[in-house]
Amino acid sequence: MSGLPAEGRRRTVIENVTPQVDGGRFPAKQVVGDTLVVEADVFADGHDEVRARLSWRPPDNPAWQQQEMDPVGNDRWQASFRLGEVGRYEFFVSARVDHWRTWVHDLQKRVAAGQDVTVDLQIGAQIIAAAAERAADADHASVLTETAAQLTASTALAPGLTEIMDANPDLTWATSLDSPLAVVVDPVRARFSAWYELFPRSASPDPKRHGTFDDVINRLDYIAGLGFDVLYLPPISPIGRHFRKGPNNRESGTAADLGVPWAIGAPVGGHTAIHPQLGDLGGFDRLVHAARQRGIEVALDIAFQSSPDHPWVTDHPEWFRARPDGTVQYAENPPKKYQDIYPFDFEASDWRGLWQALNDVFRFWIGHGVNIFRVDNPHTKPFAFWEWCLNDIKADHPQVIFLAEAFTRPKVMYQLAKVGFSQSYTYFTWRNNAAEMQEYLEELTRPPVSDFFRPNFWPNTPDILHADLQTGGPAAFEARLVLAATLSSSYGIYGPVFELGESTARELGSEEYLNSEKYQQRTWDLTGGARLRGLIERVNGARRAHPALQTNERLLFHPADNPNLLAYSKNTANQRDVILTVVNFDYHATHSGVITIDLAALGLVDGAPYEAVDLLDDQTYTWIGPRAWVELDPTVRAAHVLWLRQLP
Amino acid sequence: MSGLPAEGRRRTVIENVTPQVDGGRFPAKQVVGDTLVVEADVFADGHDEVRARLSWRPPDNPAWQQQEMDPVGNDRWQASFRLGEVGRYEFFVSARVDHWRTWVHDLQKRVAAGQDVTVDLQIGAQIIAAAAERAADADHASVLTETAAQLTASTALAPGLTEIMDANPDLTWATSLDSPLAVVVDPVRARFSAWYELFPRSASPDPKRHGTFDDVINRLDYIAGLGFDVLYLPPISPIGRHFRKGPNNRESGTAADLGVPWAIGAPVGGHTAIHPQLGDLGGFDRLVHAARQRGIEVALDIAFQSSPDHPWVTDHPEWFRARPDGTVQYAENPPKKYQDIYPFDFEASDWRGLWQALNDVFRFWIGHGVNIFRVDNPHTKPFAFWEWCLNDIKADHPQVIFLAEAFTRPKVMYQLAKVGFSQSYTYFTWRNNAAEMQEYLEELTRPPVSDFFRPNFWPNTPDILHADLQTGGPAAFEARLVLAATLSSSYGIYGPVFELGESTARELGSEEYLNSEKYQQRTWDLTGGARLRGLIERVNGARRAHPALQTNERLLFHPADNPNLLAYSKNTANQRDVILTVVNFDYHATHSGVITIDLAALGLVDGAPYEAVDLLDDQTYTWIGPRAWVELDPTVRAAHVLWLRQLP
Fold first, then answer.
1. Structure pTM?
2. Would you say the C-alpha torsion A248, A251, A257, A261 has a positive or negative sign?
3. Among this protein's residues, is A376 annotated catalytic?
4. Does B296 map to a domain?
5. Among residues B362, B361, B270, B258, which one has the least CA distance to residue B310?
6. What is the mean pLDDT of residues B514-538?
7. Would you tell me which residues 28-87 of chain B have a C-beta closer than 8 angstroms to some C-beta of chain A?
8. Which end of chain A is less crowded, N or C, counting CB atoms within 10 A of the terminal residue's CB?
9. Average pLDDT estimate for B101-122
C-alpha cells in the first residue's frame, strides 16, 4: 500500500484559485481601496454539500480573517474583501464536505414526500451532538445538546440551528491550498498616474545658465496646471567626464559639453550624489516638498550603470568585469562600443555586496522623499536581483512605486512585472493602427497579464520620437495623447517638446530628437503650444473627474465600420460613470463611420435616449440605440472623449 | 539582507513548460509510439545567448537522457523525444547563459567590422581554458588547451570548436524546474478504440435459456465483423437477491426475475466472483482468450457498490455506514431509496482496508487477462482514492486502461481524468446541433483539456436512449454513429439494440429503453439491421485504414453556410491522410450548402484539383478550391466521410 495519503477522507478539491500568477509563484497586484474578489473551483465526489472558506490577512498581521465563500455556479465559489492598506496581503481557500447541510437538504425532501423520518432524525441528532462537543461557546454547546436530545423535523429545519451549526463546523477532513497566495497592494498612483518628464538642465529660461532644481520649482505651477501628478526627472547624479558625449551624440568636442545624465558618476559622487550644475541635496529636497504641495510626486530615474569616473570603479573594482588588458569592460553592442558606460558585473563573486549597494541607492532617495522610481533598462540586470531588491524595499516602504523602462521582448517585459515592478513601459508607441491597438490592449488589460502588469503609455520619450509624430502634424500629437491617456490609466509625456509639437528627428529614419536634451541644454518658449496644452488640460481634467478612466479593468472595444476609427469605453463597476472614446488613426483625412455600442455592457437602455458630452469641447449629442454615427476631421479634432449618460 | 537567494547568479528563467497539467500537479497523457513535444519559455536578462536542455527518462530507468532544445521564436524553445514504452515518463527543462556562444556571436560582428580583436581573443581563450578544465574527455581537454594557447579569429570561429565547447558546458549557474513533470504513456487503445457493449444474459439465441460466456464467444465473429476491438460487458459478478428489480425497474415479482447486474454480490461471492448463470471463471477465461484471438479486448464493468447480499456486508460491516436502527445505509437520492444497493463508506475509519480491497478487485481481473475497465459512477468515490488506486495499479500494469463512466458536472469529470482515468464518457449524447457540437469538441480536443482528458463518444448506452434516436429514425442512428466515430478516436455503441435500430423508450420523456436488458433477458435477431451494420462496418474500416481518424489532435471545423451541416477534418501530422466529414443534423429534411475548406491546413493546394472519395459508399467527387457544395438527403445518407487527396 505504497503512496497512500496520510488521510484518505479529505474529499474536497480546490482548483483554479484566482487571482493567481503562475500558480502562485508571483503575487497579483491591486491598489489600496480595491475589493479583492477571490474565486475558486471547489467540489467533492458524490452529492454531499460542500462549503468553501476564504482566509486572508493584511500586511504585518499574522492573524487570519475568515469568511464563507458563496457558490456562483458551475462549482465556482467566490468571496471578496477590501484591501484597506498598502503592503502584501496573503490569502488561501479551504473547503469541506458539510454533512449537516447535506442532511438538512435531504430531510426537507423526505418531509415534503411525507416519509417516515424517525431514523433520519436520529442521524441528525448524532451530527448535532458532535457539533455540541466541538463548540467552544458554552451557549452553543448547551443549545446544540438540548436540540439533539429532542430533535424534531421542525426544530431541525429552523434556520437558527443551521447558523449555530455553521459556527461549529467539522473541519477534521477539510482541505486547503498547499500554501497561501499573495497580492501586493500599491498606492492608487501605481494604477492611476499622469507623468510629465522634463530635463532640469533645460528648465532655465536663460540659455546661458544651466537649469537647476529651483528652475524646476518655478516650472511646477505650469505642470500642475496641465494636470500632471508625477514629475519625472532623468538621472540627477554627477555626469561622467571620460568619453562624454556632445550634442546629437557626437564625441564631445569641448569641456563645455554637458554630457548624458545616464553616464552616472564623477569624482564628486555616484548614484547618491547630485550633479553640481543642478544644485545640491537641499535644492532637491525643496523640489520634492514644493511638488508635493501641488499634488505632484517627484519620480527619479535610476540607471544602474557607471561612467568611468564613478567612485565605485576605484572603490569596488570587483563589481565590474576586468578585461585581460587590465581595463574595465565597457558597454558594447558589437561592433558598437559605449566607452562612457561601465555595466555592473552581476556575475561578480561579490554579487551580494553589489546587490546591497544598489538596494541602498533606492533607500537613500526614499530617505529624501522619493516614492516613485523609473528604472532604466531593468532587463539588463538579473530578474533574481529585482525580485529580491523590490520586495526587500517594499517590505519596509510599501508605498514605493517602480516603473520598468524595458523596451524588449514581451516575455522579458512581463517577467519584470511579475518579479515586482509596479508599472511598465509598453509597445504603445509602435501600435499605429486601430486593429493593432485593440489587439494589444486586449492582451494587456485582461488576465493573466492584467493580474501582474500595469501599462504606462507614452506618446513620446527622449529616446522615441515616433515617425507618426514626425509626419502626422498636430492631429498625430492629439490622437496619441488621447489614446495614451484614455486607454491606459497611467500615461506620460516628455515635455515641453511634446506640447510644443517638436517633431524634427536627428536624421531620416531615426526616432531620436534633433538637438536632444539628452546631450545638450535647450531653452523653451512655454507660451507656445496653446492648442495641445488646452487638450492636455482637458484630458487630465477628464481623467480626474471620471473614475472610469482611473482603471483599465473594464476597457471594452466597440466595432466601428471604418478601420481608421477605434472606439472603446471604460466604465465603473457600478456603471454610473461611462466614457466612450473614439479616435481617428488617419491624421491626414476626415473619417466617419458607425460605432455599434454594446449598450448593455455600459448599463444603457436600448431604445431610450442617452446623452454624449464631449469632455474635450463640451459639445453634447443625444443618441438612441446602439448605432452612433461619428465623423472626425483631423484639422478640427482627432478624437471624441464622450461621457455617456442615460437621459431621464 | 534577508531573503537573498542562495545563488544570485542564476540568470535564466524557465516558464510555461508544456505539456503540463495544473502546474505539474497531474501527469499529461500520451500513447506509446507518440513523439512528446516539450516546449518552454527560456530567457535571461540582457543580451547574452541562452541555451535550454530537455532531460527525460523512461519508466523504471533512473538515468536521465539529455538533449539540447531549439529556439522556435519569441523566447520559446522546443525539443521532442519518442515515447517507446508504456508507463510513466518524467522530464524537466534546464537552462543556462552560454558565454561561449555569446562571445562567438560578438566576435563575428567585430571581425566583420574590421575591429582589433586582440583583447577579445584573450577573453575567448579564458573561456576555452575554463572548458578544458571541465572536460571529462581527455581528447577534448587537450584540444581545448591547445586552442586556448594560440587562439586566432579563424580558429575561434571554426564550427568544430563550438561543438566541443557545447559538449563541455559551464553549468555552474544553470537553472532548472523545481521538480520534474510527468507524462503517462498508455497503450494505443487508450486513444483509439471502438467499443461494443452487450449483455451476456441476452447472448443466448434461446429465450428460455440464460446467456453464458460461451454464447458471447459465439457472438465474437459478429462483433469482429462489425470492426470493434473492445467488447465491454456489464458487471459479471453475482447479482443480489434482496430488493432485486424486475422488468422495467419494477419491484421484483417472482424468483424468476434476473435482477440488475450492478447490484453486486450474493452469498456465492462478490466483486471477484462470477454470476453463476453466466458460467464460471473458466468460461470467462475462455472468452478473454477467444476475443483476443480476434483482436478484441474484453472490458469489464467495475461498480464499487454492494447488494445487501454481498459477503462484505457481513465480513466487513466497517466498510458500510450503519444507521442508528442497526440497519445498513442503502443508496438514496431523497426521497428516492435504492434499497438493493449499499454504497461503501469512504469516510470509514478503516478506509485503508477498503481502498486495498477495491484495488485488489482490479488486480484479480487483471490476473484473468482483463486490461480495460469501465468504472461505474467513479464520481461518487473520492478523487484521492482514484488517484492512489489507478496510479498504484498502473505502476505494476501500465497497459491497463480505465474508462470513467461519470455523467456529472464538467469540473468533476475533468478531475477524474486528471487523477488517472484513461478515457471518459462525455456530454456527446446531449450535443444535438452543429454549433453545440463544434463548441464542445473545440473544448475537448485542445489544451488544456486534451492534455489529460480523452473522450469516448457513445450514441447510446443501456441508460441513455436519447430523444434523437427515439424520433429521428434511421438517419439519426446513422448521423450519431458517424459523429461519434469520426469526431472522437474512441467511441462505442451498446448493441445489438443500436444496430437493430431499437428506439422505444420506457415512457414518454424517458431516456430508458423499454424492456431494458438491465432488468431482463432479451433475444435478438441479428439478421436484421443490415443498413446500419453495413454503415458500422464501413466506418470502422475507415477508422482502421486512416490514421487521421485515430487521434483527435488535429480536429478542425470548416464553416458551412447551412447551420444544419457540420463539417470537420482530421489529418495526420504529415498531412498525408486527410478525412473530411460532413453531417446533416436534421434527420427529417434534405440540406445542402457550401463548405469553406481550410485547404492550407490540410496540405491541399488552392487552385489545383483534389479528389474526395466517400468512404461510406466509394462515390468520388473532384473538387477545386476551398468552396465545396454538399447535399445530404437523410433518406439516402446522413453523412459523408470523405478521403481528400490532391490529384497529380
1. 0.95
2. positive
3. yes
4. yes
5. B270
6. 96
7. 41, 43-47, 74-75
8. C
9. 96
Q: What is the mean pLDDT of chain A?
A: 97
List of chain B residues whose C-beta atoms are within 8 Å of the C-beta of residue A417:
none
Say yes or no: B208 and B92 in one domain.
no
As a whole number of angstroms, the distance between CA A417 and CA A269 comes to 31
Q: Residue A2: is its pLDDT beyond 80?
A: no
* Residues across chain A: 648
**Of A257, A297, A340, A405, which one is the catalytic site residue?**
A405
pLDDT digits (tens, 9 = 90+) for B601-626: 999 999 999 999 999 999 999 999 99
Tell me whether residues A409 and B75 touch, CB distance under 8 A.
yes
Contact between A40 and A52 under an 8 Å Cβ cutoff? The reply is yes
Whether residues B565 and B543 share a domain: the answer is no
Among chain A residues, CA nearest to B113? A335
Q: For B230, what's the count of Cα atoms within 13 Å in the CB-facing half-sphere? A: 29
> Looking at the domain assignment, is residue A6 inside a domain?
no
Rounded distance, CA B418 to CA A29, Å? Answer: 30
Asked whether residue B134 falls in the same domain as residue B268, the answer is no
**Domain CATH for A601:** 2.60.40.1180
Residues B128 and B228 grouped into a single domain: no
Q: Could you say which residues from 12 to 31 on chain A have a Cβ atom under 8 Å away from some Cβ of chain B? A: 13, 15, 22-23
- Residue B375 shares a structural domain with residue B468: yes
| Number of structural domains found in chain B | 3
Q: Is B405 a catalytic residue?
A: yes
Residue B45: pLDDT over 80: yes
Domain shared by A484 and A588, yes or no: no
Q: What is the CATH number of the domain that holds A255?
A: 3.20.20.80
The domain boundary residue, chosen from B157, B184, B211:
B184
Query: Would you call B382 and A8 a contact, using CB atoms and an 8 Å cutoff?
Result: yes
Q: Rg of chain A's alpha carbons, rounded to an integer?
A: 30
| Cross-chain CB nearest to A381 (options B45, B107, B123) | B45
In a domain, B348, yes or no: yes
Q: Which of A4, A12, A45 to mutate to test the interface with B (most CBs of B within 10 A)?
A: A45
pLDDT tens for B465-509 read 999 999 999 999 999 999 999 999 999 999 999 999 999 999 999
Residue A5 lies in a domain: no
Lowest mean pLDDT segment, chosen from A253-262, A400-409, B580-589 = A253-262
Cα(A282)–Cα(A277) distance, rounded to whole angstroms? 13
Q: Buried b / exposed e across A91-101, counting CB within 10 Å, b at 16+?
A: bbbbbbbbbbb
Per-residue confidence at B1, pLDDT binned at 50, 70, 90? low
Q: Could you tell me which of A256, A273, A255 has the C-alpha nearest to residue A264?
A: A273
How high is the pLDDT of residue A1?
58
Instruction: Tell me which residue range forms the domain holding A378.
Output: 189-550
* Burial status of residue A188 (CB atoms within 10 A of its CB: 0-12, 13-18, 19 or more): middle
Task: Give the pLDDT confidence score for residue A255 in this predicted structure.
Answer: 78
Residue A48 sits in a domain whose CATH number is 2.60.40.10
A-chain residue closest to B333, CA distance: A106
Residue B496 is predicted with a pLDDT of 97
Query: How far B304 CA lies from chain A's nearest CA (Å)?
Result: 13
Q: B427 in contact with A at a CB cutoff of 8 Å?
A: no
* SS3 assignment, position A551: coil
Last residue of a domain, one of B184, B202, B234: B184
A249 and A138 inside one domain: no
Residue in chain A closest to B325 (alpha carbons) equals: A119
Mean pLDDT of A210-235: 98
The per-residue DSSP string of A399-411 comes to T-EEEEE--S-HH
What tens digit of pLDDT does each residue of A591-614 get? 999 999 999 999 999 999 999 999
- Cα-based torsion angle of the residue sequence B287, B289, B291, B293 in order, rounded to the nearest 10 degrees: -150
Chain B (125-154) residues lying within 8 Å, Cβ to Cβ, of chain A: 126
**Same domain assignment for residues B266 and B117:** no
